[in-house]
Amino acid sequence: MTSNQPSSAPFGNEEIQLGITHRGKQIQLTFPEHAILADLSEKIATDLSIPPQNQKLFISSKLGLQRPPFKDPNVPLTDIATKKITLMGSTAAEVSALGASITAASAARRPSPVKPLTPSRSRDVKRIQEEAMYTFHTLRPLPYLRNPEKSLKFLERLRDDAGIKAAMRTHKFSVPLLTEMDPAMHTTHESRTLGLNRNKGEVIELRLRTDAYDGYRDYKTIRKTLCHELAHNVHGPHDRNFWDLCKQIEREVERDDWRSGGRSVGDQEYYEPEEVYDHGGWSGGEFVLGGGGPTQTVQGGASGSLSAGNLSRREILARAAEERLKKKKQIEKSNKDGVNDPAK
Question: Alpha helices, DSSP H only, in the chain?
Answer without folding.
Answer: 37-48, 92-107, 125-133, 148-160, 162-171, 219-231, 240-256, 313-340
